[in-house]
Amino acid sequence: MRSLIVLVLVGLAAQLVDGSLGMAYGVTSTTLLLAVGITPALASMVVHISEVGTTLASGLSHWRFGNVDWEKVGWLAVPGGVGAFVGAVVLGSFISAEAAEPIVAVFLFCLGGYVLARFAFDRRGRLIEARRVPRRLLSPLGLFAGFLDALGGGGWGPIGTSTLLSSRRMEPRKVVGTVDTSEFIVALSASAGFLVSLSLSEVPWSIVGALLAGGLVAAPIAAWIVRHLNSRVLGTAVGGFILLTNANTFLGAIGAGEKVDLPVYAIIVVVWTVALYFSISALRKERRPVFES
């Protein structure tokens, strides 16, 4: 009973972060399940089945608060669903995604640094450029992110959110809401792929239920946060989170020794804190009333 309560809290925390920043539900939940001895394929299956419910609730909540760009949902979700189904079948055949992890981590780490710098420190012009996001970007992005999401137990949010944010063509809240809403199709397709390659009797439904329960509670709270959080602050928060969650794999990919791990993490936290300070300070200046003499 105690372990199920812990899983409910994990599901709540994971969905609160995912719904607010557009990433981390799969990564957080999968990491915990692997730590208790569940196989990678089964852990990813559990996470994606629970995500069918949490992403539906998250999408409805984001829609309710006006965080979704419906024109882009289909162009992301359909290719994402195809990629997720294929990735699930591949993972169910016991092929690992470890070879791709370093490349993806380097890509995301660089994007995270760009997003953080852009939203926190750039004072030139507008943060968001009112330009159309081309479909030739959305569809390949959805396909690639969906495939890696099913293969590695997480990746749809980090890849989708960070890439769209770096384009600077959408408001951060619209990015988060659109990516989260599209993820329903991805989770549904991945679950179908796992059911093709794995047995339904293998699914630990009590774990699925616990993660789902926590996620359902957190979904509307996260959508409310996104709706009311300033674009500059939200973009800065996402950028720092991307750096922090990909730092370990990034350092391994470039051959850095373990001795530099702690200093690098400390630097990221300090830079992130300073960036948030700059973002909040800029927000206060923007909202400060101007009195004419």
TrEMBL record:
Protein's organism: Rubrobacter xylanophilus
InterPro entries noted in UniProt: TM_pro_TauE-like, TSUP/Inactive_protease-like
GO terms under cellular component: plasma membrane
Primary location group: membrane
Protein name, UniProt field: Probable membrane transporter protein
Record keywords, A-Z: Cell membrane, Membrane, Transmembrane, Transmembrane helix
Membrane topology: Multi-pass membrane protein
Short name of one Pfam family: TauE
Gene (name only): ytnM
Localization, UniProt: Cell membrane; Membrane
Family, per entry: Belongs to the 4-toluene sulfonate uptake permease (TSUP) (TC 2.A.102) family.
Residues that span the membrane, as ranges: 32-52, 73-97, 103-121, 141-159, 203-226, 233-256, 262-283
UniProt superkingdom: Bacteria
